[in-house]
Amino acid sequence: MITIDSDRDIMLKAIERARKTMNEDKGGPFGAAVIDAEGNILSVASNTVLSDHDASAHAEINAIRAASKKIGSHDLTGCTIYTTAHPCPMCLGATIWANIKNIIYGCRPEDADSIGFRDDFIYEFIRNDLSDTNILKLDEKYREECLKLFKEYDAMDKEIY
Amino acid sequence: MITIDSDRDIMLKAIERARKTMNEDKGGPFGAAVIDAEGNILSVASNTVLSDHDASAHAEINAIRAASKKIGSHDLTGCTIYTTAHPCPMCLGATIWANIKNIIYGCRPEDADSIGFRDDFIYEFIRNDLSDTNILKLDEKYREECLKLFKEYDAMDKEIY
């Protein structure tokens, strides 16, 4: 007998994982899970920014990394990601790079905001064309040197992923 | 005698690392380095999406992870990140979450575009309010269940990071 978890069951697993690591002081109250096209759970993960000393260790990125490791490919085409909160731009980007086309999220950006996580300011920064130098300053330098590398790559005629 | 690498030397180290892993077929032609406020190099890394089976293993994310591991904290306040190409939204987000306020980049988005890496489409997706369902579909579900977790976290009165 094959047991396929319901949509709600999957979200509850993500919540349960987040609750565990939150209580262990490993990170914030965020969980995620990746399922494949057949509904099999490939990964369940949570935010471990504090315990991993890694600002990128958000729940969605951890779930994508674990799912990719499980199937041995960075390409998660056909998968769906469940996340207990609307993804930040970093996690949104990782989802798109992993070729995942469906995100099911629980809490809204304003919910995260109400407990002090200001995820939305990065979206605002991007919508304002990365121009707020109080958040981040971007300078272009040594473009010619870096372009050489691109040209070498281009000459190798590799598959783009 | 303390040797501090020049700006250009640091970028060249990032290029050199990228060239190595590109030629080993570990990932794309992208390198990055993180230096601390005193100019010490904390990390040099490159894109290892293919060899790590990890869509999030872009050069900047790898460099941020390595630098954080080196100092034992997710907080890279005062650091600068060098990257051979303008960061994608995922890497931009990771940089901001790591509290890095300066990015020095080499190639422009249009340069990446010209060798087939369409990083800019994720910026476009965000600027268009995540509305293009050909790229990604976001659905809100089980918000009430997820909100419980936020409320538990809020009641713990933890430091926000």
Shape of chain A: globular
- State mean pLDDT of chain A (0 to 100 scale): 94
Judged by helices, strands and strand pairing, the structural class of chain A is alpha+beta
Reading side by side through the largest sheet of chain A, how are the strands ordered? 2-1-3-4
Q: Please bin the fraction of helical residues of chain A.
A: 40-55%
Proportion of β residues of chain A? 15-25%
User: Which pair of chains has the greatest number of interface residues, and how are they split between the two chains?
Assistant: A-B, 91 and 90 residues
Multimerization status: homodimer
Question: Would you kindly provide a written description of the structure presented here, covering whatever features stand out?
Answer:
The structure is a homodimer of 161-residue chains. With 161 residues, chain A is of the alpha+beta class. Helices cover 44% and strands 17% of the residues of chain A. Chain A has seven helices and five strands. Chain A has helices at 7-23, 49-52, 59-71, 89-97, 109-114, 120-127, 143-156, and strands at residues 31-35, 41-46, 80-85, 102-107, 137-140. Chain A has a four-stranded mixed β-sheet. In chain A, helix 3 (59-71) runs parallel beside helix 4 (89-97). The longest helix of chain A has 17 residues, at 7-23. The first copy, chain A, is globular. The mean pLDDT of chain A is 94. At the A-B interface, helix 1, helix 2, helix 3, helix 4 and strand 4 of A face helix 1, helix 2, helix 3, helix 4 and strand 4 of B. Strand 5 of chain A pairs parallel with strand 4 of chain B.
